[in-house]
Task: structure prediction
Amino acid sequence: MLSRYPLLALALLAACSPAERAPDGPQEPSRVIEYPPYRGVVLVTIDTLRADHVSMHGYLRKTTPFLDELAERSVVFENAQASMPFTGPSHSSMLTGLHPFQHKVMVNGQTLSPEIPNVAKAFRDAGYRTSAFVSTGFLRSVTKSFDEVSLGKRSGRETVEQAVQWAQELEPGTPFFMWIHLFNVHEWEIENPNKDRRPELAEGSFPLAPDAWYDYLAKHHGWPMVQATDPFPEFTWDTNRRIISSRETLLETVDRYDAQIQYTDASVRLLFNKLSEVIGEDPALWLITSDHGEGLGSHRYKGHSGQIFQEQLHVPLLVFQQPALTPRRVSGVVSLVDVAPTLTAGLDPQPPAWESLSLWPLILGEQSGFSRPAFAQRSPVGTAGDVFALIHEGHKYLYRAKHQDAYYDLTQDPQELNSTPDAPGAEPTRAMLHAQLKALDWSVDGQDTDISDLPEDILQELKALGYVE
Ligand SMILES: [Zn+2]
Result:
């Protein structure tokens, strides 16, 4: 019965490619893995979701009750890193297995060339129906390879309803790949009369008394550690130079952000339950993650594209399979570029070899992590010089074109508050990053970030989000 799904039972996991490892670094070994065939493969991306605001990852406030439940039956990656904290580039990395400087989507609105091998194309070539249900307009530019695309600025629930309807209308047994993108969390700051776009916190969302709650959040965000009666050290946190002048403003920020996470978690629950009805007993694979995090006052910064601290890069990642996988937590560092080879690992025909790594050896517990570090880059738009980072086994080294390099021992300083680039522990990661940058022959000046040919409606959407002046 399972043979009706166009997948291989056995596939060879490719070795780590030269582009994805430090030039002198060890290669990942090749191995044969047995994959179950899937009727449905579902990629869910929750835009702008930093991992430390997800209760599945230990956040004290219950923001993701559904993901918490699903995690009990899933493989959860504790250390997934975005390649660039910017929506279009990061989603393109998930879909292609490439970093932004490789797939050339450097800013929102730039088109992901359908000539580049990508997940949607791989599924289509293997006989799957493919669809993208996206909650913004500007991501249209990265969906060229999908059979069906539905997009527009809308709530998570509306997007989920569209996606479920599409799946229900498929011929029974038709294999499918769906990408569902949910944008509510990105909109935490926007006033909206639509209750689906501006939800309230659930009851019981304050796990601590007010002062203790501020202290908990201040510690995890690197906010000013001041008492309610102390004068607050004001700071600005965006290019509009909006002043944060009180503890209350920061607390309100988190409340608004977390309310959107709770709403989105409920949207994912709805999607999961409805699609599970459609799929029935047929095997399915789910991968749920985010494209990047959000500043929320950490490092005195509000948003995401202009910095690459962990609050921008560290995202949740969960893999669920029906029939169920052995649940486990994976602590090793992985990258969102690894999503593409993971989703397509068992396809027949196999797509051209990805440049990134399949997560399957980690999903199956054969490895606890990769020897390859995670690479990240700040958006080049509107920034004073570029910043690149490598994250590897608790070490994070940042090369900054116009400032001194930075190094953080994430095991001792997870909030990245004390840079110690001259520390002995910095050297191996620094050497790897410099070697990788040299090997990549990176040129900031040669990077095309032109979006002047965008349609007016997309341009207006990007302006409203602050991405275009
Ligand atoms: Zn985004």
